[in-house]
Amino acid sequence: MIQILKLLNVFLEHNFKNKRMKKIITIFFLSIATSSFMNKELKQNFVNQIPPQDILAGTWKYQNGNEVFVIILWRVTDGYRGHYKKIVVDANGNQTREIFNSDKSIGTSSKNWPYVIYSSDMSQNYVIGGTFKDNTVIHPSNSGGFIEGGFKMQILNPNCYDSFGNNSCALQAQWTVKKDQGLIDPNEPDFSVPNNVVLTKQ
């Protein structure tokens, strides 16, 4: 900006002897330069205020008939956290009933589960994995009211992803969940969630 003003001053000194004309031209060019600079700065600020989207954070669905399994993930500093639910939808895809939802109160308290899906950061091959707690099953022998296992979620088509939401195709991920190895209570029920399906990001 300063360099432009210096060049403009040299140009005016050599080509315009009238002081009033010099002043008018200087103000004119100065207003154009300032306007251009401010517009560029405003555009950059606007771009900076739009946070890039995350490839995993958001809503993922798997539909079987009129039942839809939904996973909601959000990004945290060291990885991902999430909840899940299963709903019933009509022919137009509108929810008509909720079968279960992990985002519920802990036992008889007024405090909700903060999350039931816990993962560290994503690997280079687009995989997350960690702890999964199924708190939507009835398991009296577990004082916590849930069963625990491990989960894995892998993006199948990362090339479809665009951090600004302009995805070229539907992003999909393989979802698997299984119980921890070791001694398992023979009366422990199965997970209420699908254990090996392909999810689609919404």
Detail the topology: elements first, then pairings.
Elements: H1 2-15, H2 19-49, E1 58-64, E2 67-76, E3 79-89, E4 95-101, E5 117-120, E6 127-134, E7 147-155, E8 172-179, E9 196-201
Antiparallel strand pairs: 1-2, 1-9, 2-3, 3-4, 3-5, 5-6, 6-7, 7-8, 8-9
Helix pairs in contact: 1-2
What's the short version?
The protein is 22% helix and 35% strand. The protein has 202 residues and is an alpha+beta fold. The radius of gyration is 29 Å and the shape is globular.
The coarse overall form would be: globular
Give average pLDDT, whole number. Answer: 81
Q: Report the top-level CATH class of the largest domain.
A: Mainly Beta
What fold name goes in the CATH topology slot of the largest domain? Lipocalin
The tally of beta strands, per DSSP, is: 9
Total individual domains: 2
Output the strand order for the largest sheet: 1-2-3-5-6-7-8-9
Structural class: alpha+beta
CATH architecture descriptor of the largest domain: Beta Barrel
| Largest sheet properties | 8 strands, antiparallel, barrel
Give unreliable regions as ranges.
36-48
The termini sit apart by: 46 Å
